[in-house]
Amino acid sequence: MRTEGIDAVFLETHNWGKQARFLQELGFEVEFETGHNSGRFRHGDGPSVFVAEVPPTQDPRTLLVLKVADTQDRPGRDVEIVTEFEQTHYGTQEMTVRDPDGRQWNLQAPGKE
Q: Cα–Cα distance between 66 and 68 in angstroms, integer?
């Protein structure tokens, strides 16, 4: 499976407002807010950063989201699949894989039509 590079960084936070201000101070601009303590930021032509607030009882995660052309291209045997491609509520299909050190990566393909 070949990816097309980093599509986005997904960050969870305990405080949406503070994280949003932090990113804006670093030059990121808000592309959109969802209205429920999450939204997407961008800085130039680089990957987007999607931030979502989680409860204080949950450890915040950071995920890299790699872009793939379609779901038919499968990872090789050296890639551990955590979850198969699934349709998301926001219009893409996502698969989760684990690297040799235990980190999870999201693979994102276009949604089903």
A: 7
